[in-house]
Amino acid sequence: MAKVxxxxxxVKEVRQGNEGILFNKAAALMALKSTPVKSRVSSGAxxxxxxxxxxxxxxxxxxSTQQAMAMYAAAKGVELTKELKHSLSSTVWVLSxxxxxxxxxxxxxxxxxxxxxxLAA
Length: 121
Description:
The protein is mainly alpha-helical. The protein has five helices and two strands, in the order αααααββ.
């Protein structure tokens, strides 16, 4: 909640106490040099998607979404939070043939009988 001032004098005192922040060019250039260039254009399986596909390759068997999430978390050494679980399950769905809006061939094939995914041939 915003602070409520009783009079104009209080506002002036608070404004006088604030110091201007200068733009630190040296810090900005250092950040530029230490940050790798990443393209926003996706080349198919990149980032999380590539890691999930790698989990399927390593397993060499059909995996449920839960199994793929557990493998990803173990391989990356991260905790499965609610947000990460959502991201992972969404990524598995996007890579699968269940995604009707997919523009490229499906990477994963879903088996209705088992409820598991396999790498598409």
